[in-house]
Amino acid sequence: MNGKINELLEAGIIRKSTSEYASPVVLVKKKGGDYRLCVDYRALNANTIKDRYPLPHIEDQVTRLSGKSYFTTLDLAQGYYQVPIDDESIRKTAFITQSGLYEFLKMPFGLSNAPAVFARLIQVTLGEVSHEIALYLDDVMIPTISVKRGLELLEQVLGLLEKANLKLHLKKCSFLKNTTNYLDHEISAGTIQPGRAKINCVAEYRRPRNVHEVRQFIGLTSYFRKFIRNFAQIAQPLTELTKKDIEWHWDSQQEQAFRTLKQRLIERPVLGIYDKDAKTELHTDASKLGLGGVLIHKHQRDGNLKPIAFFSRVTTNEERCYHSYELETLAVVESLKRFRIYLTGIPVKIVTDCAALRTTLVKKDLIPRIARWWLTIQDFDLEIEYWPGERMKHVDALSRNPSSNFVLMIDNDDWLKTLQMQDEGIQNILAQFREQSINPDLIANYVVKDNLLFRKTIGGERFVIPKLAKYGLLQKLHDQIGHPGFEKCEKTIKAQFWFPGMTRFIRKYINACLQCAFGKGNHGKLEGELHLIDKAACPMHTIPYTQIIWVLS
After folding, report:
1. CA pair distance 168, 82, nearest whole angstrom
2. 25 in helix, strand or coil?
3. What angle do CA 386, 390, 391 make, to 5 degrees?
4. pTM, two decimal places
């Protein structure tokens, strides 16, 4: 503590104080191993007039990266400490330590208005280039199509920062990279996935022991909920624990939800980045259990469909009593609200398996509840298209099935070990091999190599895929290699992997594949051949009849 105080004194960030204010203080360790002085300003904040300057929307900033190939990230050195405090307010920032009372000369963390003040400063400083860059507090991203434009824009941004006397932390900056980390996401050309550092925190998160830790875990995973199909349904056993008057318990449902959310994020699913020039569709579905929606791009060049974000939520007890038409309408309304930042001001095609929704836009005698819902989204430019249920399996899972499709990073043995470490059944088998108390059937069917479990088959030894990784494996070895048919896909997977019921699972997955549904096969009912009826030469020329044969005993 004393070392940090001396460091801040020498930097001119704090000074000794005789103020009548005194807030408590604590040291918090930062990522790089350094410490940050944090003051508990709750009492001061409660009596502060709030600055309502809007903070940047993270999804809006990420959208600006669409179509770009080169990324430069700039980090302002101790961003808040570069902002001087008004003389009349300095005494209010006083904090108490063992060595005495001090007060800030520069803006500290913890003040309720600090984010708004800093956001305004950055916007004013870089306002003339803000339409070409992404800004979120002290994180500045310069995305460009070419190296040349990247250098030009970088020079312009650096000039504006110098003019405002704002300094950068060079070690945290990166220049003209094809892949970069921004706001805890890993960004590449046209794709986005959860950042490794944040996912490591998820992977290492211990089993919650109380409601407070459950809330922390839900908050951590919710940041990436757009990557997780059916997030709300998966997390429901955990969110139930946070409700009032619910007694603390932890059983198989909570454990399954906890493990599933961790596994889904460890697999680091990949989504596309929203592109305003691409054709946008919103596919929705609903059931008594929940509502779901998928924001999809249909690219003009190749017609490929790419998911941009997923939405789902559990229905309330009242909503479960709704008619199916009302639930389907609610799914559309809630999905539009969730993706408003993307869909306002552009034509949007709503794809649903509820035929009645097609008349909702022009129907005059809507029931009051649906009329109220529809009024909240009347500013959207909507077109509703009906698809039969068999073509909506990609969204149907969001509202009915807690399983999901995810991209797996099949890179090395670390990935394999991570997957098997999360599976309790596999760990039990490995434990039996280690303890040499092995069931004879296990010896006949399995083998352990480098602490990994393999299945013995006629064609050789195959890596055992955990239950939670099946969907991700299919997405990697089906969706990302050209959507092969069932036989080819099954052959590819069986050459390396094994899991129970593999053939049936692969067939079911491919039958529900959205891209395959678009590009292959006939989706309608096959009609029989039609032939002309011979023209009759005279009345009673042809007489239809039914022959009935009586069998007398």
Report:
1. 10
2. strand
3. 55
4. 0.56
Can you tell me whether residue 55 is helix, strand or coil? coil
**Which residue in 265, 227, 231, 221 sits closest to 399, CA to CA?**
231
How far from each other are the two terminal CA atoms of the chain, in whole angstroms? 108
Task: Say whether 454 sits in a helix, a strand or coil.
Answer: strand
Strand partners, 135: 140
Q: Are 87 and 105 in contact (CB under 8 A)?
A: no
Cα separation, 387 vs 248, in Å, equals 44
Q: Show the tokens assigned to 150.
A: 């990247």
Helix (H) / strand (E) element for 416: namely helix 413-421
- Written as six digits, the tokens of 188 are 């590449």
What are the b/e assignments for 419-456, b being 16+ CB within 10 Å?
bbebbeebeebbebbeeeeeeeeeeeebeeeeebbbbe
Q: How far apart are CA 5 and CA 9, in angstroms?
A: 6
278 beta partners: none
**What is the Cα 540 distance to its own chain's centre?**
71
54 phi and psi angles, rounded to 5 deg: -70, 140
**Cα–Cα distance, 64 to 66 (Å, whole number):** 6
Q: Exposure of 491 by Cβ count < 10 A (0-12 exposed, 13-18 middle, 19+ buried)?
A: exposed
- The CA distance from 215 to 206, in Å, is 13
Q: How many CB atoms lie within 10 A of CB 55?
A: 12
**Running DSSP on this structure, what letter comes out for residue 535?**
P
Neighbouring CB atoms inside 10 A of 199's CB total 19
Q: What are phi and psi of 124, to 5 degrees?
A: -65, -40
DSSP, collapsed to helix, strand or coil, labels residue 113 as coil
The answer to whether 102 and 95 are in contact (CB under 8 A) is yes
Which class for 496: exposed (0-12), middle (13-18), buried (19 or more C-beta within 10 A)?
middle
Cα-to-chain-centroid distance, residue 406: 11
The residue among 453, 455, 445 whose CA lies nearest residue 429 is 453
CA distance 384 to 378: 13
Residue 123 class from Cβ within 10 Å (0-12 exposed, 13-18 middle, 19+ buried)?
middle
What is the pLDDT tens value at each position of the chain, 553 positions in all? 777 888 889 889 989 999 999 888 877 766 666 667 788 888 888 888 988 888 888 778 888 888 888 999 998 988 889 999 999 999 999 998 888 899 999 998 888 899 899 999 999 999 889 889 988 888 899 999 999 999 999 999 999 999 999 999 888 899 999 888 888 888 887 788 888 877 888 888 888 889 888 998 888 888 888 888 778 888 888 988 988 888 888 888 888 888 888 888 887 777 778 877 778 888 888 888 788 888 888 766 655 677 888 888 888 888 888 888 888 889 888 988 888 878 877 888 888 887 777 777 666 677 788 888 877 777 788 888 877 655 555 555 444 433 333 333 333 445 556 667 667 788 888 888 877 777 777 888 888 887 788 898 887 888 898 877 787 778 777 776 667 888 888 888 888 889 989 999 898 888 877 667 655 555 455 455 555 566 667 777 777 666 555 555 4
